[in-house]
Each structure stands twice: as C-alpha cells, then as structure tokens.
Design goal:
Layout: E1 2-4, H1 17-26, H2 30-44, H3 51-59, E2 63-67, H4 78-84, E3 89-93, E4 98-102, E5 105-108, E6 119-123
Parallel strand pairs: 1-5
Antiparallel strand pairs: 2-6, 3-4, 3-6, 4-5
Length: about 130
C-alpha cells in the first residue's frame, strides 16, 4: 500500500507535500505543479500551499472534493482509506499533511499511513 516516492527534483520532503501530492495525482512534474500553484496563488492573492489554492488547482484538473465521514474521526487513517478505495486517484488532506492515493496505494516521501484524513479530492471522469 505505501510506495515511497518523492517527485521533488532535489529529494526534499519538508514543506512541499502539497506540490508532491498534486504532482503524483495529476501526473505532472513537480516543477509544473509548483509553477502552476504559484501562478494560481498570485491570481487568488494567497499562498500556493493554501487549501483554497491547491483545491482550486485540483478542481481545474477534474477533481471533486468530498468530506471523510465523521464516524470515527480519530481512527480512520490514510491506510484505511486505501483499503476502501482500491481504484481511482485521490488527494487526501489531514490537518497538517497532503498525500496522493492511486489505485489503493499511497505515495509519499515518508510513511503517512497512520495520518487521519479530513477531506479528499477524487479525480472525476467527465
């Protein structure tokens, strides 16, 4: 389920989880996503890593936002989400991290499987 992957060209893994996750989910390069988020952040007058900026970036790339059901707010993990979603492309947001899930596997530079997602974006087929 966990696949160690870091698309950052310099293998850095602090402060760029949004860029890394979106690069994986959209199948774009880290650089392409970084520039796109920066331009969108400028357009929206907000930081590129702000939730509303990267959320808009995903919406413009055919993703739709969903809330994780509040059945067990502290026990439903990224790993649980992967078991429940064996097909599809998703971007999960926790309180402090963003991670990509593709076909039941989560891609990250560290094992974030125990993190608790609050909401997620799903790639929708139009």
């Amino acid at each position: 389920m966990f696949i160690r992957y870091n698309p950052n060209p310099d293998s850095k893994d602090v402060g760029d989880c949004v860029v890394r996750a979106l690069a994986i989910a959209t199948e774009h390069t880290w650089e392409y996503v970084y520039v796109g988020l920066s331009m969108l952040g400028y357009e929206m007058r907000d930081m590129p890593s702000a939730n509303r900026v990267w959320g808009e970036y995903l919406r413009r790339n055919k993703f739709k936002k969903y809330i994780v059901p509040d059945k067990c707010p502290s026990c439903y993990t990224v790993l649980d989400f992967c078991y429940d979603h064996p097909r599809g492309t998703f971007v999960l947001a926790t309180g402090s991290h963003v991670v990509a899930v593709v076909n039941g596997d989560y891609y990250d530079s560290w094992d974030s499987g125990n993190e608790v997602p609050v909401y997620y974006y799903s790639l929708e087929e139009y």
